[in-house]
Amino acid sequence: MIEAALQSTAGILCLALVFDAVIGDPPALWNRLPHPVVLFGNLIGWGETRWNRSEAGDAARRRGGVMLAVLLLAAAALIGWLLHRLVSFVSYGWLLEAAIASVFLAQKSLYDHVAAVARAFETDGLPGARRAVSMIVGRDPEQLDEGGVSRAAIETAAENFSDGVVAPAFWYLIGGLPGLLAYKALNTADSMIGHKNERYLMFGWASARLDDLANLIPARLSALLIWTAAFVTPGADARSSVRATLRDARLHRSPNAGWPEAAMAGALGLRLAGPRVYGGKTVDDSWMGAGGADAGMGDIRRALVLFRLACGALILVAGLLALAA
Question: Mean pLDDT for the chain?
Answer without folding.
Answer: 91
